[in-house]
Amino acid sequence: MHNHFRSKEISWLSFNERVLQEAANPEVPLLERVKFLGIYSSNLDEFFRVRVATLKRLATLGDRYRELNIPNPVETLRQINAIVARENQSFNKAYTQVIKNLADENIHVIDNRTVPAKHQVWLKEYFQDNVAPRLMPIMLKTSAKLPQLKDNPMYLAVRLTKKNNTGRPAHSIIEIPGDLPRFVVLPKSGKTTLIMYLDDIIRYGLSEIFLHLPYDHFESYAIKFTRDSELEFDDDFTDSVYDKVAEGLLARQGGFPVRSNYDATIPPQFLRLLNKKLNLSGSDNLYPGARYHNRKDLIDFPQLGRSDLLYPPPAKVAPKRLKRIIKEGFFSALKKKDLLLHIPYHSFLIFIDFLREASMDPLVQSIQVTQYRLAKNSFVARALMAAAHNGKDVTILVEPQARFDEGANIAWANEYQRNGVRVILGVQGLKVHSKLCLVSRREHGKLRRYTALGTGNFNELSAKVFSDHLLITANCEIGDDASAIFEFFERTYKAPKLKHLVAAPFNLRNFIRKRIQIEMANARKGIPAGLSIKVNNLSDLETINLLYDAANAGVKVRLIVRGMFSMITGPESPAPSIEAIGIVDKYLEHSRMFIFQNEDSPLVYLSSADFLPRNFDSRIETVFPILDSKLNKQLRDFFELQWRDNVKARILNKTLSNRFRRPKEGEEKIRSQFVLEKQFRS
C-alpha cells in the first residue's frame, strides 16, 4: 500500500483558497467578488464546524489515530492554523480592495462613525423601529453566570464607561438579530449609494439602548462562536427520529466551541473577562479577527440593480427537443429518447414541468422521490403535494441527517404528512444521498416506470449556481433498478439486486475497483486504456492506491476534482503520469462523472457519490450509466472541454499551489463554463 496520501483537510483548504483567488481577481465582476468572499467565509465556517471539530475529537485518541490510516490529527490541526492565518491575511487584503473598488463605483460601505448628517434622522428612526426592539443586552457581572452563547448568531461585546473616566466600567453582550438584513441600504442621495452593516447600526444606537445607565461612552467588539456541529445518534430506532433530530439540533447549539473569533482590538482585560465567563480561558480555539465576523453574509450583499457588476444570469435554455416534448408530453417523448439536462446551462424548471405533468396525468399511479436538500419554498415539494391531492400514491424518503438541513427536512416531513404524502424518515445506519425520482404509470394494463437520476439535489435555487447533470429516462431496466432501491428503503434487510444501476454501500466500491482493474489489464495488453474522473472530493485511500497502480500500469488517468484531493501528483509522486485539475468559476462544479475507456467503447456513468470512504461505505449513493450513444458522446465532449480549460483550471500538483493552467503558445483560451453556456445556447 502506498503512503503517498495528503490530509483531506489540508487539501480542502487549498480548494477554499481557489475560491479566495476568485474574490481577489480584478477580472471577476465586482459584486461577484463580494459574493466569493462570502462563499469563502461560509465554507470556512462549515470546515471548522465539521472537519476541525472531528480532528479535535480524533486528537484525543493519542497514537491510536494510526489505526484509522489518517495523518496525525494534532499535526494536521497545527497546519490548519498556519494556513488559515495566512489565508486570513489574503482575505483581508481582498476585502479591503473590494471595498475600495465599490467606492470607485459610488457604492460606499460606511460605519457608525461616518454617517452623513443628512442621513442621521432616517438612521435613528430605522434603529428605533426595526433594531432596538430586538436587542436584549445581557449585563456581565462578576458573580452571575453567563448563559450559553449560540452557534450561528454574532454578538457585540460592549464596554460601558464615562468620558471623564470616573467610576467602574460595565460590560454587556448583545446578540445581533438574525432576522434583519445584515446590510442596510440608506436612502439614496444623488449618485452615491451608502450601505451599513447591521453591526454598525447597533453601535450607532448604543447610547439609546443604555440610556438609563450612568454611562456616556461605549466601545463595542464583535465576537462569534463556531461550534462542533456533529449530531450524534445511537442505533436505537425505537425512539422517534423526530425527537432525536430535535435533541441533536439543540445539542449542536451547545456544542464545544472549535473556533472563537474576536475583534483583535479588544482590550486584553475585557477579553480575559469574556474568556473567563465563557469558560474559554486557556483555550487553543481563540482566533483574533477584524471588526466584522460572519462574512458569509457577503453572499447576500445588495445587488443594487447593478447588473453591470455581476455575471450574466444563466440563460433559460432548454434542450432542442423540448419543444417536441412540450407538444407530445414527457411520457410519449421519453419512450423515444432519454432526456439529459446539463444544469444550469439547461433550466431546472424542466424537471418541475415533468413533475407537474406526472401529478396531473390520469395514468400515473405513484411517485417516489428521495429528498436530501430542498429550496426554502420548494417547487418540487409543491408538485409532490399536488400529486397527492390528485390521488397519486406519493412516497418521499426524507433524509433527516442532511447536515445543516436537519430541521428543514423534519419540517418538510411534517408538511408532507399533512398533505397526504407518505414519508419514510431515513434508513437506519445509513445516510441517503441518492438523487432519485421514480414515476410509475399504468400503460396498456402494465406498469411503465420513468426515472429521473441526478448528480445534485432536486433544488431549484442551488440549480442556478451548481453545475450538475440530470437524466430522465423510460428505460425499463433502470426503472426496475430504481424500484428495487425504493423497495430497500421499505425493507432494509434485503439488499437490492440491480442490472444497470450501481449503489453504495452494496456494490459501488467493488464496481469501481473492477472497472479500474479492467483498464489496467487492457493497458498491459497494449489496448487503449483510460480513466477520466470528475468528482467533488477524492480522499478514499483504497481508490487512490488503485489509481496510482493503474497509472503505473499504463492507464491514462485524468482527474477533475473540485474540493478534497488527497492524492500526490507530479514528477515526485507515486504515479507521475497522473494529471489533475480543479475548476472554480462562475458556477460551482458539482457533477460526478466516471468515464472508462473500455477498449474502443467508452462507458460513461454519472453519480451522486464522491470518492470518500463515507460515500462508498455508509451512504446510499447511486451511479447510473448513460446508455444512449449520443448522450454518452455528449458527456465525453463535456469532460474533454473542461479538461482543456486553461483560464479557470488550477493544476493540482504536489504542493497544491493553485497555479493556473495557462494556454501554451499559439493555443486558444478556453474558459469551459463560458464555452458551455455558448454551446447550449446555440
State the CATH class of the largest domain: Alpha Beta
Task: Give the % helix.
Answer: 25-40%
What is the name of the CATH architecture of the largest domain?
2-Layer Sandwich
Low-confidence stretches are 231-239, 244-255
User: Could you tell me the mean pLDDT?
Assistant: 89
Distance between the amino and carboxyl termini = 49 Å
The oligomeric state is single chain
Shape: globular
* Class by SSE composition: alpha/beta
At the fold tier of CATH, the topology name of the largest domain is Endonuclease, Chain A
Strand content: 15-25%
* CATH homology group of the largest domain: Endonuclease Chain A
Instruction: Please tally the helical runs, counting DSSP H or I stretches of 4 or more residues.
Output: 19
Largest sheet: 10 strands, mixed
Question: Compute the gyration radius: what is it?
Answer: 27 Å
